[in-house]
Write a structure and sequence with these properties.
- The protein has a single domain, classed as Sandwich (Immunoglobulin-like), CATH 2.60.40.
- The strands form two sheets. Strands 1, 2, 5, 8 and 9 form a five-stranded mixed β-sheet that branches.
- The protein is globular.
- It is of the alpha+beta class.
- The relative contact order is 0.23.
- 17% of the residues lie in helices and 28% in strands.
């Protein structure tokens, strides 16, 4: 009988913790962002959407073969860039996420996740599992270089708690 009470108590505690984590008053509650990247009306079938914070931190989310991306951010306004050159077959492979080794290996590699910072709290910042309808393996699509540079991309988004849809229609 005591075991059932402990299990029930643990269940109630878990629900309370989950409710506080999703509460709109929690400043660290994640924002779910998702959308589709297109270039001249066609899906960009691979690469990364990179969200740049004003403090220099960045979050990279993979673009799936059907042009979609999804992941978690913290609430705020971000400058957005799109990288497809990491898939360029004519470029030397370096096996790293955009922004250098740090994108994949954290601050020791010069990356974007400080100890105790946002990235350490939300491990899913590197994106979500590939959706079933994402299509085949991502392929390289050449886009104008301006979209890879935060100072010239012209792209920005304000992420809010809950879901934010942000489609990125790139053009020449």
């Amino acid at each position: 009988m005591m075991t059932r009470a402990r299990i029930a108590g643990a269940g109630v505690l878990a629900l309370l913790v989950a409710a506080v984590g999703c509460n709109s008053s929690n400043p660290d509650a994640p924002c779910r962002i998702q959308g589709k990247v297109t270039y001249n009306g066609n899906p960009v079938s691979g690469g990364f959407v990179i969200f740049h914070e004003s403090n220099g931190n960045k979050v990279s989310l993979p673009i799936f073969a059907n042009g979609t991306y999804a992941g978690d951010l913290k609430e705020g306004t971000f400058t957005v860039t799109v990288d497809t050159e990491s898939l360029n077959p004519n470029k030397k492979a370096d096996n790293r996420a955009p922004g250098g080794a740090g994108g994949a290996y954290g601050p020791a590699g010069g990356g974007n996740s400080g100890a105790g910072g946002y990235a350490s709290k939300y491990k899913s910042q590197q994106g979500s599992p590939t959706p079933e309808n994402a299509g085949p393996k991502p392929e390289y699509v050449k886009i104008p270089a301006k979209y890879a540079d935060p100072s010239s991309s012209g792209l920005s988004v304000t992420a809010k708690r809950g879901k934010t849809e942000y489609n990125i229609p790139l053009t020449d």
